[in-house]
Amino acid sequence: MRNSEKLLQIPMLEKVAEDIYKLSVHFPFGMRQVNCYLFKGDNGFTVVDTGSCAKESIAIWEQVMDAGIKVEKLIFTHTHPDHIGLAGWFQKTYGTPVHMSGLCYKEVQRVRNLKSGQWMCHFFKQHGGPEISEDLLMSESKSYDFEPDVIFENNEKIKLGNDSYEVIRTPGHAPDHICFYQPERQILVAGDHVLDEISPIIAVWSADDLNPLQDYFDSLDLVSGLKVKLVLPGHGGLIEDLPARAAAIKSGHIRRMQQIFESIKDEAKPAGQIYQDIYGELSIYKFFAPLMTTISRLIYLESIGKVQSKIKNGEYYYYLID
């Protein structure tokens, strides 16, 4: 039986284009699901993103590998643990080579430093967020227990299966985020840069992230200008109208920024209070995305002169500039 026929025998796999298959990998935390893509080539399949290092993710991949599928290499859109979590498992279990961008590898090295959890705890406190344990923030640190076999850079061309794709840096959701673009087939492998039903988290992950929402708007405009018929996102459904989806995401940020103005129209507030005005009170397991994206919006608004921050009792308070 040929590889493509074997893949069609695996019920969780979906053929999304010629020689391209989507594997939906599930796990019991975070986003709870990620799209992994398998690109058929003469030497086996290139896998883009793997899912989390959870036992549930491993069980799904074991079914695929037990069907006799040969994986030539792994490639990643960015280094968040739900995308890169099984890099080390593939290396150790199957000897699969790991290919990643230089920026991705830099992020891997940063996250390995346990002080990154310390920094994030301090960052939450500075912005009026809830207290959270450093252990929780570093709970998926084992996702980074590997070394890449091949490093590539932005603007290079790499093979996904038999086709050559352009590497396009798209920071915003993550500073190391990249998309892969095939101009002849007009396919964009988008990772978490553009999603179908939800807006990607735009967050400050380290002191080096100065204005992630501005970065995101710029890179969203960049991919919107490409000729694309099919977008392969990291979560949820496929996207066929990229400019419309990008415009909708940007419109959502603008709407939320109007809500920020409403929240602070009468008094200065920290981000931890502003996000609760907008989203309501959230549990310790659901606050992360609303708080971090609210902070990114406030940083962006301050950069364009709409709000200003001041430090009060060790916290950043934001107020409107009239």
UniProtKB/TrEMBL annotation:
InterPro entries per UniProt: Metallo-B-lactamas, RibonucZ/Hydroxyglut_hydro, Sec-metab_biosynth-thioest
SUPFAM superfamilies linked: Metallo-hydrolase/oxidoreductase
CDD domains in alphabetical order: TTHA1429-like_MBL-fold
Annotated Metallo-beta-lactamase domain residues: 33-235
Record flagged with keyword Translocase: no
One GO MF term: hydrolase activity
Keyword Hydrolase appears in the UniProt entry: yes
Pfam families: Lactamase_B
Keywords: Hydrolase
Transmembrane segments: none
Domain of life (superkingdom): Bacteria
Listed SMART domains: Lactamase_B
Protein name: Glyoxylase-like metal-dependent hydrolase (Beta-lactamase superfamily II)
Organism: Bacillus benzoevorans
